[in-house]
Write a structure and sequence with these properties.
Blueprint (H helix, E strand, L loop, with lengths): L5 E3 L8 E8 L2 E9 H4 L5 E3 L5 E3 L2 H19 L1 H10 L3 E4 H4 L9 E5 L19 H10 L4 E2 L5 E4 L9 E4 L11 E5 L2 E5 L15 H13 L9
Parallel strand pairs: 7-10
Antiparallel strand pairs: 1-2, 2-3, 4-5, 6-7, 8-9, 9-10, 11-12
Helix pairs in contact: 2-3
């Protein structure tokens, strides 16, 4: 049964904590309250509402750390987190984050998704084959500085409230048989895949078969917003 982890940031008079329900069968048995500062110092046993103590499992500890990191990011970088949440349905993360090679300086590289073929108007005056119009609208909505060096590519630069560069481009080749997996980046769930190289502008639309393979997952069923988890 999925536990409901709840985060409390704390203030001048209260501690930063996470609590969650412990179940016995299908009934709530009690609530365990985890003091985050002492957890980070190595403590693993915490009190429960019924007077007992509970030792965290490895899974519970990992879930609490995940939640704390995400919520702290929300408090420090609310604009960045909001932008990533709204961006997620239109991209697949590639590059260092997809390969688990990201470090503190790594930007977030995103493959710009193609529209499902049924949504593409071949007679449109402006090419609407990708979700670039929606991405540009998001960048404008959040008031972000951006740059572009080639068609099908735009970068949101590091700036106040934006701690990582976010590159959005259709110039990535993702092998057709590459697996797609979900991963949280700054607490926001993204679909990710391992690309093997970038491609030229003329090659971009040669790989739409791979894009069709995941379009139903990404566009028809957008990833849930982290705040609803």
């Amino acid at each position: 049964m999925k536990r409901n982890y709840r985060y409390f940031a704390g203030d001048d008079t209260t501690r930063e904590t996470v609590d969650f329900d412990l179940y016995k069968g299908s009934q709530d048995e009690t609530t365990c309250v985890v003091d985050v500062p002492t957890l980070m110092k190595g403590r693993r046993v915490f009190p429960c509402g019924n007077g007992d103590d509970h030792m965290l499992t490895n899974y519970q500890e990992a879930e609490i750390y995940r939640l704390v990191r995400a919520k702290r990011n929300e408090l420090v970088f609310p604009k960045f987190i909001g932008f990533l949440r709204d961006l997620a349905p239109y991209v697949v993360v590639v590059g260092t984050y997809a390969r688990n090679e990201a470090n503190l300086d790594s930007g977030i590289q995103c493959y710009l998704r193609c529209r499902p073929r049924a949504e593409v108007d071949p007679e449109a005056a402006v090419n609407n084959g990708t979700y670039m119009p929606e991405v540009l609208e998001l960048i404008d909505q959040y008031g972000l500085e951006s740059s572009s060096i080639v068609g099908g590519y735009i970068a949101v630069n590091c700036q106040e409230g934006i701690p990582r560069m976010v590159e959005i481009s259709s110039h990535h080749r993702i092998p057709y048989n590459e697996s797609v997996f979900e991963q949280e980046i700054f607490g926001v769930p993204f679909l990710c895949a391992r690309d093997d190289r970038t491609v030229s502008a003329s090659e971009c639309y040669e790989y739409m078969e791979w894009d069709d393979a995941v379009s139903d997952v990404v566009i028809k069923n957008p990833l849930p917003k982290y705040a609803e988890a």
